[in-house]
Amino acid sequence: MLDVKMIREQPDLVRNNLKRRHDQEKMKLLEEFIKSDRKWRDAIAELNSLRQRKNELSLEIAKLKKSGKAAAKQIKEAEGVAGKIKELEAVSTELEEKNRLMLMAIPNMLYETVPYGKDDSENVEVRRWGSAPRFDFTPKDHQTIAEQLNMIDFERAAKVAGAGFYYLKGDLVLLDLALQKFAIDHLRKKGFTVVNPPLMIRRKVYEGVTDLSDFELVTYNIAGTDMYLIATSEHPMGAMFFEETLNKADLPMKLCGISPCFRKEVGTHGKYTKGLFRVHQFNKIEQFIFCLPEQSWQMHEELQKNSEELYQQLGLHYRVVNICTGDIGSIAAKKYDIEVWMADGKFRESGSNSNCTDYQARRLGVKYKEGEGKPPAGFVHTLNNTALATSRTMIAILEQFQREDSSVDIPKVLWPYTGIKRLEKK
Question: Is position 288 within any domain?
Answer without folding.
Answer: yes
